[in-house]
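In the previous chapter we treated chains in isolation. Here, by contrast, the input contains two separate entities that must be folded as one system, with a combined length of 614 residues.
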Amino acid sequence: MFVNYFKERRRATSFNIFIVRVLLGVYGIWKALSYDFERLREWPEFLFAQNYHAIDILVSLQLDFVWIEKWIIVALFVLFVFGWRTGFVTFFLAAFITHVGALHYSVTNSGATWMPVIYILILFGLYRETDVLSVDGYRRTSSMPQGELNAVLKRGDDSPLYMGFLMWTLIIFAATYFFTGYSKILFAGVSWLEMGHLPVQLQVEAIRHLNEVPPTAQFLIDHQIIAWISSWLTIVFECGFLIFVLLRLPIWPFIIGLAGLHAMILLTMNIFFFDQYLLYLAFIPWDRLHVSAEGRSPLKVVYDDTCNFCARALTVLRHVDTGNVVRFVAPGDAREEIDRIPDDVDFTKEMYAFRNGEVYRGHYAFIEVLRTNYVLRPLAWLLKLPPVAWAGERVYDYIARNRHALSTSCEVSQNGDGGEE
Amino acid sequence: MVAAFIFATFFGATTVAFVFHRGPIVRGGYLFFLLALISAPGFGIVAWHWPFFSWHLYATRTQPEITFSEVRVADAEGNEIKLSARGIPPTMATPMRRFGDKLLELEPEHAQELARFFLEKANERADRLRNENETFWRFLKFPRHQYGYRWSKEMLEGLGPFVELRVYTVDAEFSEDGRELLSRTEELTKAFS
């Protein structure tokens, strides 16, 4: 259900990193657009100048440019979704969010929910070379000779990729939970776990901030044993998560438990840690949500192995094929590998995909590769919708006609084996 | 200046790590540096600055007797209502209570400036609630970190423009098991107009 990346440090593809990058990027865009960073300018300036967290020099200038920073953050997250220059992008995103977050923290504490994002961006930047399914992944293939590209496509499985980014994300994420649990014992001792403490805490929270006791809080106040068990479970889930990660044990009970804890905090205190729910998604084994290779005939994709652009793009795209059901075939080998090729098929014109006698051409062959993974099926469905498909066919045709011009190198043999001349 | 120094040092070290990220010593060293910076405030060893946090959420034992500040706004007739943080973005209910404490501690001119700002925002919020329907787009916004107390049109009925901001000191006592509110008293500590 969730991957303990401290135990499973290698994966066959970079698909999980791709999904986390896209999710984190979309989440960042949504969050940044929703935050009222620009409203900070309306607040009395001395609050920022006196604040312990904000950089207390040129405060007025900093506040004047906060709205620009917000849009820079949004723009950088857009580039991040596509995986363009992720080293540069993640570094500046982390720095801008830190700066704006510290200013924001001068007047409210909700900005602390940005902190895990900052750490994850930095970890992504440190392990950016393992993010293959991206614009950067495509750019990195420019150093690969055509023969090597074709060999990679034909060979299929490579040596597994090290998931350092997701492993460290999990450790730091679990560590932040650990400190919240540990600090309760550090500062309050076992008295935090005494019967009656949680009901008092709920009452105090309600009288100070809510003006009324929420029904779920009232239920816990009335049922002290359940409240007492909840206190213990809070410490167990917060502290146990990191311990289970480091002992390489399954983490799903803790993610489920912590999701429940956040739901209870929302219902009893009206404080919503929505970000956490999105961050749990980083540990789902997305690469296992694929079409099973067992009992299925492979999808055979015939591509132009003399086209450098095509081979580079497919070398990246093959990371979608987490079930290992796609076979890339050179036109020269197609007659051997594929039964019953229709007469109107012209391998020099476009890419083809074959499965169980079905033939998919160009744009639709590309869609079939995406369809091998259930996670990408909504995208595949979208690409099949009439207006998108119409545009997609034309874009594909344009690229197919100009593929050699788009290639950085086409100095390859035409005999289909992909060897260099 | 401490915040500026920490920001510059941390992102300076991060620059080096990003440039030499393929070197196992640089990357490994930086990761332990990052883990140590995240852990130190978590263990209560050092104070923290952005982008680091103590993660000490509800870490102390909550006592059944409490004293806290509550900020209210009043119209010319003296009718008052507890100030809602919703009209003063991006703040929320918890920091609003702390601003109540702050209004009592600040230098008089700063306290006056902050109180005027809150009064202005409270009037703007009340006018918006009375005159405009909230738009559908608010449902598309990222969820708030804190819900709870907020003004409604009904709550504002009978209230005129706010002319005074009042800080009350509230004392409350609950039973040891939290089931009962034993007492609640409040005192107007300071008023700003």
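The mean pLDDT of chain A is 89. Chain A touches chain B through 88 residues (CB under 8 Å). Compare these points with the single-chain example from earlier in the chapter.
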